[in-house]
Design brief:
Blueprint: E1 3-22, E2 25-44, E3 50-51, H1 57-70, E4 76-82, H2 93-108, H3 115-123, E5 136-139, E6 147-151, E7 157-162, H4 169-173, H5 178-184, H6 186-202, H7 205-219, H8 228-237, E8 242-245, E9 252-256, H9 264-278, E10 282-287, E11 294-298
Parallel strand pairs: 3-4
Antiparallel strand pairs: 1-2, 1-11, 2-4, 2-5, 5-6, 7-9, 7-10, 8-9
Helix pairs in contact: 1-2, 2-3, 6-7
GO molecular function, one term: kinase activity
InterPro entries: GHMP_kinase_N_dom (IPR006204), Ribosomal_Su5_D2-typ_SF (IPR020568), Ribsml_uS5_D2-typ_fold_subgr (IPR014721)
Organism: Desulfosporosinus lacus DSM 15449
Length: about 300
C-alpha cells in the first residue's frame, strides 16, 4: 500500500452537562450536538511530512503520535477539514479535530478505531471531551483513567450564545485555584451528577437541564459569564428548562424541549429575540446528537494527494 485515504467525522459539544471533581479527581459529562469536525486524510507511505492548515497544531501532534505508536517513520500526507467548529468556545473543537484526524488516518491504514483508542490519543495531547464515544459519556478528562457510558442522548434543542473571546483548554485546566474551586463545589456537583444520571436513564430532559444549570452556576466563580442570570431567567420565561455552559469556554446555551410543541421554527424566533436582547457576538441553534465517530476508508487506484 503506497497511498490510502480515510474520512472521519466527530461531533462537537454544547459545553458539558456537568463538570467538576469527585474526591478531587476532575470529570465531565459531555453534551454532544449536531455540529462536526470532518477530516479527510490522504496518506503517503513514502513521505514523512504533513500538509495541513497551520492552525491545526493539535491535529499535527496526533498524527506524529500515530507515526511513533505504529512504528511508521515514513508516513505523511495531506489533511483537509470541513464543517469546522468555532475554536476556543468550549465546543470540543480541539477534541473533535484530534479524533477525526486520528480516526481517518487509522482507518486508512486498516487499523482499529475504537473510541477507547481515540480517547487515549486525545488525552495525551490535552484534557479532552468524550465525544468519540457514542451516547452521553462521563470521563475523567484530565487524568483519563476512567470513562463510563451513562446512556443515550436525550432529545434537546440548544440556543447557544457567545460574547467573544477564547479560552485554551490546557491553560484552563492548569490554572491555579482550579482544584480548590472544584473542592468547594464538590457537594453541588455531586447533586448535579445524580440528577444528570437520572435524567439520562429516564430520558428526562428537565432533570438533565436542572443538572446543567447547577453545574453552570458553580462554574461562574472560575469562569464568569456576565449575562448568565438575565439569560437564564429569559430562557425559563420562554419555555426553556435551564442552561448548559462551556465550563472551560465562553459558550452559554438555553436548553429547550425538542418536540411538536417546541419546534425549530419557534427556536428561530427565539434566536432573533435573543440577538436583540443580549447582543452576542455568536449565536446558533443546535440539536442534541447521539455522539460517536463515523469513519470510512476510501478505495483508490492512484495517488489522490
Amino acid at each position: 500500500m503506497d497511498f490510502a485515504v480515510g474520512l472521519a467525522r466527530c461531533p462537537g459539544t454544547c459545553g458539558e452537562w456537568v463538570q467538576g471533581a469527585r474526591r478531587g479527581v476532575p470529570f465531565l459529562i459531555d453534551c454532544p450536538i449536531d455540529r462536526f469536525s470532518e477530516a479527510r486524510v490522504a496518506l503517503n507511505m513514502h513521505d514523512s511530512g504533513w500538509d495541513l492548515p497551520l492552525n491545526k497544531i493539535k491535529a499535527l501532534q496526533v498524527l506524529e503520535l500515530l507515526k511513533e505508536n505504529l512504528g511508521l517513520p515514513m508516513l505523511g500526507g495531506k489533511v483537509k477539514f470541513s464543517h469546522q467548529l468555532p475554536e476556543g468556545k468550549g465546543m470540543a473543537s480541539s477534541t473533535a479535530d484530534i479524533t477525526a484526524v486520528a480516526a481517518a488516518a487509522l482507518i486508512a491504514l486498516g487499523e482499529d478505531v475504537a473510541p477507547e483508542r481515540l480517547a487515549g490519543l486525545a488525552l495525551r495531547i490535552e484534557p479532552s471531551d468524550s465525544v468519540m464515544f457514542p451516547g452521553i459519556t462521563e470521563i475523567e478528562h484530565v487524568q483519563g483513567h476512567n470513562h463510563r457510558l451513562l446512556g443515550s442522548s436525550v432529545p434537546a434543542l440548544f440556543l447557544a450564545l457567545d460574547w467573544g473571546g477564547t479560552i485554551d483548554t490546557g491553560m484552563f485546566n492548569a490554572r491555579p485555584g482550579l482544584a480548590e474551586h472544584y473542592r468547594r463545589y464538590e457537594s453541588e456537583i455531586k447533586r448535579a451528577h445524580k440528577l444528570a444520571c437520572e435524567g439520562i436513564a429516564q430520558g428526562d430532559l428537565e432533570k438533565l437541564a436542572s443538572a446543567g444549570t447547577i453545574s453552570a452556576k458553580c462554574n461562574l466563580e472560575i469562569n464568569p459569564k456576565s449575562f448568565f442570570e438575565p439569560f437564564l431567567s429569559w430562557v425559563r420565561q420562554k419555555g426553556g428548562l435551564g442552561v448548559v455552559t462551556a465550563h472551560s469556554g465562553t459558550l452559554l446555551a438555553g436548553v429547550f424541549p425538542q418536540n411538536g410543541l417546541f419546534n425549530y421554527d419557534l427556536g428561530g424566533n427565539l434566536r432573533i429575540e435573543a440577538q436583540q436582547l443580549f447582543k452576542p457576538a455568536y449565536i446558533d441553534l443546535f440539536n442534541s446528537h447521539s455522539g460517536g465517530i463515523v469513519a470510512t476508508k476510501m478505495e483508490i487506484t492512484e495517488n489522490t494527494g
